[in-house]
Amino acid sequence: MGNIITKVDLGGIAEEVGIEENDVLLSINGKKVNDIIDYKFLSADEEITLEIEKSNGEVWEIEIEKEYGEDLGIEFGGGIMDKAKSCSNKCIFCFIDQLPKGMRESLYFKDDDSRLSFLQGNFVTLTNMKEEDIDRIIQYRISPINISVQTTNPELRVEMLNNRFAGKIFEIMKRLADAGINMNAQIVSVPGINNGDELIRTIKDLYTLYPQVSDVAVVPIGITKFRQGLKQVKTYTKQESIKEIERVKELQDIYMKEIGEPFVRLSDEFYLVAGKEIPNQEFYDDYHQIEDGIGMVRCFRDAIDDTLNDLDETMRGSFSIVTGTLAYPELLEASLKIQNKNPNIKLDVYAIINNYFGSTITIAGLLTGTDIIDQMKGVINSKYLIMSNNMFRKGYELADSSEQIMLDDTKIKDIEAALDVKVIVVDYTGEDLIEKINEYRENS
After folding, report:
1. Fold for domain 5-76?
2. What DSSP designation does 377 have?
3. DSSP code, position 86
């Protein structure tokens, strides 16, 4: 049963009224609670009545008065109180379909659940939504929803997702927009398929739903070496990246004049592959799309510049940093700034080639411990190895969400044992890199 209470916050409302772990939530205000969305909506009122089944079988009826929206202080197993809805698509760009065999089982599960979009920011395709699901989003005013669009061309979307129901995306989004539901859109761009004119069409269509569709993130397809039996696709070349940047910029300039923001933003990978300068900080609007790889480089550069004066110039230390081949020049530049500020610091940066998934995967977030250990054994001459936190998985798909583990199940302790180093995990934004270097000084 998904309504089993697995955690009760100390000092919270639930604890005060006698709710305990392993109690079962039966209803709120006489209405059955089917999942976390029902719970969030039904428990928001100032006056609510809970029906709780205790571990001894007794059923308690508890009346509660509280502030509107105030949390009761309870958590449920599985987060959403239900099994996550799996994806019914066979997308040509799906990364999960490109995973090798033998990885942990949870990595092969394709979620496409609007509840996880609301709760955890996951992007969903909306292809498995029934009329009642849409009605509930509208009734409960669930916002924002992160939507994986790819294209608003109905025929092309059916082809890209290999799902005959996929062509209704714009129709559904318009219905949600008309109801005042806020949405964020993502487009995985595949050269020769949904880029170029198709990409421009999709952006223009989505702009008609502004401000309910508040922004659009465009990210390039990632291709591993495990695409046997899948549709042949290609990654962006330098010239294709340049052309995409230029075409999208024409729209961005128009939207900047109309609404004061670009509306659509390309991920950093486009600029790095193209050899183009990354836009300025103002362009990224507080970096709210950074989880899509949008503005990550600019954020990192600014974080280093903003904290460089915090570096202790009296300290000594020797550190190594590992990153993907795409971000290597950025990390190298940052290391030179740090060492110029304090020449007593030795900071080596290493680009890890992704042999596990294939060299076409260049981002740090998809590195594995296997490659890091194989390529760094006998190479590192420092006591400390600095790694970005986006190399580690955490969250609902792990049994123990507190444990940092890499995609290939490598743990920090495995890397430390294999390389005889102390691993220092820093935020991928770079905001605490200087702080960590100061902390792990060798002397004052």
Report:
1. Pdz3 Domain (2.30.42)
2. T
3. B
Among the ranges given (125-129, 148-152, 226-230, 386-390), the one the predictor scored with the smallest mean pLDDT? 125-129
Domain ranges of the chain: 5-76, 96-292, 301-439
Q: Say which amino acid occupies 212.
A: Q
| pTM, entire model | 0.84
Distance CA 391, CA 385 (A): 13
Residue 10, CA distances (Å) to 7, 14, 45, 74, 323 in order: 9, 9, 22, 10, 40
Give per-residue pLDDT as tens, 335-352. 999 999 999 999 999 999
For residue 277, the tally of other CB atoms under 10 A from its CB is 8
pLDDT digits over 190-231, tens only? 999 999 999 999 999 999 999 999 999 999 999 999 998 889
As a residue count, the chain comes to 444
Nearest to 406 by CA among 200, 146, 164, 103: 103
Fold of 96-292: pyruvate-formate lyase- activating enzyme (3.80.30)
Q: In whole angstroms, how far apart are CA 89 and each of 99, 110, 198? A: 16, 9, 21
Other Cβ atoms within 10 Å of 92 Cβ, number: 21
Written as one letter, the residue type at 163 is N
Q: What CATH number should be reported for the domain whose range is 301-439?
A: 3.40.50
